[in-house]
Structure to design on (526 residues):
């Protein structure tokens, strides 16, 4: 067991005025199974890169172990090669026989090492890279969001594998994965960093209790401050009124007042003023104690959505529907109905036809031709078929959509997001001030508004797509893997939004907790 000690760490990117980290100190053990969470843009991936020595920083990071990072960066040249031929370029001195053993632990065929890398699915690529990662000794492993774009089967395989490992730091927003695989949590709060024993749920339970305590303490201090201020004002008024009686008096009305009364009145006034000063000092102490109580509390703003009501009950209907691209048959004899008020979740392996079915519905509605949908919310011509297929869709059977159906769509691909938010809003026919207001509610920093979207993290890009979708009034909200890269706290926000407004939805999302929360019905593909 070894320690990683972080002391007075400060870092900001060149040209930026905002520190990502400022005087941060904490300590972790290298044999921990450490979960790492925080809001998008708070610096999780940046911290991993600092451990890897990619940036200069102030302060110190002391570690007696080396670090290795997932995912490995695969070049264009390597995409056409077999992993067996270039794995040593990714991880020097890795031994192939050990990688094979790790693959067998994940119940994966070692033949994957001898197939061109581009032919592997997302799940297969993830598991091969994890096998390489865990095949070397004396490394503390930094695993950055391993389950993005993975179907449920692949997520379960990764989860099962990591459950039997230790000595890693896992960045993930998948609550199910964190609960199963970690024994400690490293959390980037709003203004602090904390390390706590346990998994995500135990940390969240402790945090909820602590937040409730701090809110109660804050309210107690607030009431005390109000009382003290009122008492200080009242005593101050008495002192001023008393002081005004020192000089000049009516000998007829105040016949019992002697010449020594002036000194007595002065002493009494001084005593009252001293009491006021003590109260002001106590008010200062109460305010000081009150400050900081709410700084780390997650108080997500209530998001809003404006679903439209359609005159028909059944909005989408498929009967004996077939869909193919060339000779590649995606769906066969498929039956489906989406009624108003339902939130249907499409579930199945990657490549089972979920996204293809969604895009068939969008084509039926003329979605690609609607104004304001060419970027983050739209369907481009290149999306008419699976990537690299080179075929147009061949359909048979019945696929019907209600007339005049309005759809708000989130594409799983963020590559179309370019330029600044102002240009995006013009392109998508959105009110810029409203979009930025929603982004602020999703904990988007104002400083990000002046940046180009190419500089955003993947989580921030996804938040732009979610905010754009929420702004559009629609009969159906079709979201294709909307939560990839989205932080845990924003996921909870979106869940609460959906449960409150209950829009009609068609969703592809592999987050088990999200499925359990929002789905009224699950349709299995494949």
């Amino acid at each position: 067991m070894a320690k990683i000690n972080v002391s007075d760490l400060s870092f900001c990117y060149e040209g930026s005025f905002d520190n990502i980290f400022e005087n941060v100190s904490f300590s972790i053990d290298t044999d921990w199974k450490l979960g790492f969470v925080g809001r998008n843009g708070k610096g999780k991936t940046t911290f991993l890169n600092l451990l890897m020595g990619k940036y200069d920083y102030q302060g110190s990071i002391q570690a007696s172990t080396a670090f290795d990072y997932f995912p490995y960066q695969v070049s264009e040249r390597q995409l056409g090669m077999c992993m067996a031929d270039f794995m040593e370029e990714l991880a020097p001195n890795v031994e192939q026989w050990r990688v094979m053993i790790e693959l067998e632990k994940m119940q994966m065929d070692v033949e994957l090492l001898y197939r061109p890398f581009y032919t592997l699915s997302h799940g297969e690529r993830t598991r091969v890279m994890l096998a390489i990662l865990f095949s070397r000794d004396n490394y503390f492993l930094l695993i950055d969001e391993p389950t993005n774009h993975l179907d449920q089967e692949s997520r379960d395989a990764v989860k099962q594998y990591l459950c039997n490992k230790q000595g890693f730091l896992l960045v993930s927003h998948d609550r199910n994965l964190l609960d199963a695989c970690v024994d400690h949590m490293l959390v980037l709060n709003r203004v602090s960093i904390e390390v706590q024993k346990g998994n995500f749920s135990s940390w969240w339970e402790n945090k909820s209790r602590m937040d409730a305590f701090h809110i109660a303490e804050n309210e107690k201090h607030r009431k005390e401050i109000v009382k003290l201020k009122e008492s200080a004002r009242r005593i101050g008024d008495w002192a001023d009124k008393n002081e005004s009686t020192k000089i000049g008096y009516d000998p007829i009305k105040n016949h019992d007042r002697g010449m020594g009364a002036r000194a007595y009145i002065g002493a009494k006034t001084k005593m009252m003023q001293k009491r006021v000063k003590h109260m002001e000092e106590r008010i200062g102490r109460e305010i000081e104690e009150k400050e900081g109580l709410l700084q780390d509390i997650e108080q997500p703003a209530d998001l809003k959505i404006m679903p439209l009501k359609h005159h028909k009950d059944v909005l989408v209907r498929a009967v004996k529907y077939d869909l193919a691209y060339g000779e590649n048959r995606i769906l066969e004899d498929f039956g489906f109905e989406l009624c108003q008020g339902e939130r249907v979740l499409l579930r199945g392996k990657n490549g089972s036809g979920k996204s293809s079915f969604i895009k068939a519905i969008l084509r039926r509605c003329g979605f690609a031709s609607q104004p304001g949908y060419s970027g983050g919310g739209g369907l481009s011509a290149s999306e008419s078929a699976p990537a690299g297929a080179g075929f147009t869709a061949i359909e048979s059977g019945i696929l019907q959509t209600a007339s005049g159906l309005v759809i708000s769509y989130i594409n799983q691909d963020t590559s179309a997001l370019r330029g600044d938010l102002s240009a995006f809003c013009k392109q998508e026919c959105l009110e810029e001030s409203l979009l930025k207001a929603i982004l602020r509610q999703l904990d988007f920093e104002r400083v990000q508004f002046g940046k180009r979207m190419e500089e955003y993290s993947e989580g921030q890009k996804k938040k732009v797509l979610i905010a754009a979708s929420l702004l559009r009034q629609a009969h159906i909200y079709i979201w294709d893997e909307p939560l990839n890269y989205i932080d845990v706290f924003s996921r909870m926000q979106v869940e609460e939004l959906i449960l409150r407004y209950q829009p009609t939805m068609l969703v592809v999302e592999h987050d088990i907790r999200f499925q359990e929360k929002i789905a009224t019905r699950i349709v299995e593909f494949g």
